[in-house]
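Title: Prediction job returns without error message
Component: structure pipeline
Severity: low
Priority: P3
Assignee: unassigned

Description:
Job completed but the reporter wants confirmation the result is attached to the right record. Sequence as submitted:
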Amino acid sequence: MSDEKVTTYDKLVNALRHKLYDYVDRIITTEDQYFSRLETLSLTLRNCKKSLQEFHHYTPKNIVALDGASATFNLEIGRIGMYLALAIIFPSMKRIYVKDSYGIVPEDPSEITEYRDPIIFNRLLDLRRERKIFELATYIVENIKEIEVVLIDGPLLPTPVTGLENIDVKLNAEYVRYFKAIERLHKLCYEEGIILIGFVKRVRSKLIKGHIQGLKLTRPENLERDVSLFPDTYDSILVDILLDEGELFPYPPIIVEHLSSKNIRVLCSFVKTKEDATPYRIDVAGGTNRKEESFNKAVGLILEHMTIYGIPYPILKIDEEVKLSRRLVRELYDDLRYRCFMKTHGRLISLKAIWGEFL
């Protein structure tokens, strides 16, 4: 627990607290409306749900799990971002990274002052981190034999463009490279018959209800027929209402095809592995021409490695070993301060943290 002392003016805090109470009451009212609308679709929903117990566990010879992390120093000289990507092969527990799997943004210190907009900077850092994950996965598939499954902590679908790419040349170039890295891995896994799985812990999609620009969505027939009746909200909210622990929705999965690339075709469903946890999304690509078989194996693999936390062990392990925790970031910052102090005989102007930033 934090030992931080609260010093905010108490009457202002109480006013804000009551404002939040009113806000939450309105959220609850909206949620009640979701329940009412979904009750009218009980038959459709029942036909699209599937118990996880109906899937056979799947244990491939070798799987590789990948994840990445990033963090930022907000200093007097400007923002300095860092990123990591790591892979672990199971069951051998061999760790893999290459020279290109870690780095700094911007690469040239003389460009630090060019990134004054924190939104553009954070977007660039996020894209770079995700690109390095997919590039590392491609390197492993191309160079290490007998990999049967690639398991990525995160989605297999590219994040949509935001409009920021149109106003920043470097950000636009990074997005192009990010998209090509995803496309290349999809194509390679399909050609090699390797199952590609994305385990999405923070679901912010609208695949069940939405019509998403740039994507072609093919839902199960029963679901497609009644999709207009669904509340217009995030998939995670709908699925959390629909599913009990140990259930998957929908089945057959939603087919998502990217209109900008014939190589990006993903099967998506949602699972509720624990009653008190938010639902997760499973993305599946690659594998054989028999897509249903690849999807069933992917779910079976998730079940085979499931932990008491509701998350498969390879995902927990890779997340743990690539994490840039607050403590680690603080240690790295202290290392930089010491190095600067020693090389400049006590001068620490550029590496001072700006006021209000706690590393």
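Comment from assignee: result matches the submitted record. Residues 261 and 357 are 42 Å apart (CA to CA).
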